[in-house]
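From the pipeline queue, job 12 of 40. The input is one protein chain; the requested action is below.

Action: predict structure.
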Amino acid sequence: MTRSLPSHGGAPLRQVRHTTVPNSIAQRYDDVRQATAALAMPLTDEDCCAQSMPDASPAKWHLAHTTWFFETFVLESYERDFQPFHPAFRVLFNSYYNGLGAQHPRAQRGLLTRPALPQVLAYRMNVDGRMAQLLQERADDATLHALVELGLQHEQQHQELILTDVKHLLSCNPLWPSYEQQQRAAPAAGGGLHPAAMPLAWHRFEGGVVEIGHAGEGFAFDNESPRHRVFLAPYQLASRLVTNGEYLAFIEDGGYQEPAHWLAEGWDWRRTNQLDHPLYWRRAATTANSQPRADGAAAWEEFTLAGACPLAPHRPAVHLSYYEADAYARWAGARLPTEAEWEAAAAGADSTLGHFADSGEWHPRAAQGTPGGGQAPLAQLFGDAWQWTQSSYAAYPGFRIAEGAVGEYNGKFMVNQYVLRGGSCVTPAGHVRASYRNFFPATARWQVSGIRLARDA
């Protein structure tokens, strides 16, 4: 059975845009912390402790680590007569901050049956109370508020990770159980009440010298700066994300068996792991009464946070690695965009418009609308699925890592990873912007990652 959390954690998942000013930071802190706790409500104690793979973390660890961030980086520096909630938590829930000392091995987080979940929830309540007092006492401290905002943005990243890590965990169960027993908006199969995606069209961009990076207004992570100029040749972007039906055509054309489509390293990875379809797809059981569909999708089903669902051909294809995204693009006679191309195309678009986690439907939707040419807005720029780019994750010209342990946040990961843009259906609304840079290794599949095609003009 699922568990009831303390009253401070029972608010519905919601997120609105805030500015970091003294009279709003305390309320924003409460909103974000409640949203995290709400994500744990459908889970059993066993769900919260298990770790399905080294890249994922137990929900209990996420609940504790986000609390550790505020205790370690905020309370330890600002609270009078600071005393830690538990001295051992400094090591147990440190993720990767080498400047703060030792960490419990990431791959062994699922072995932390102690502290028990009730103690982790007590830890959250304790730190929340102390933070409320601190923010009341230092209501005009802009430096403190900026640090708290960083912690809240960090926690929103972990809200997304809770959903993707739990999804991977539940997918390892042969029953393919639902995250919520009564899902608010379970994905529907293609056809029927579910509309088809808009036809794919190509939008041309003239390129030239453009500026990318954070423009200086509102919050941004350090890896989004400095803003700088780049030159782009004329290019085109697809009007929407690649759909399940389109990706299925790649599979049925032997895309996973043809090495010409794959990077050499990707081909070795695919062959070593014996992969021939996306992470959460499986071939559906057929019966004598099964009715075939012309698109072939009836032969497949997909695991979602609502459990197993028939593959919807018009929804975006997701949970794809960089290798799979790149192979599909080559097969389709296209390529993946650079991050500069993507950001230049997204400049001026409203990053709050899109399908985000706040809807409670944690699965991408089909793109709707009539595509246009030229500079017409692109569909699904924000939300639905993170979009792989061909850009390696590296520092912008003039980037400098901040001093102290908090400076380890992004800079030290700028190697052997690729940039993704746009957010997904499990990203909190208001968390992303055109300059936001997500990054994962080329093999990562458990995040909600999809494909937007590009080509030279």
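Job complete. The two ends are 56 Å apart (CA to CA).
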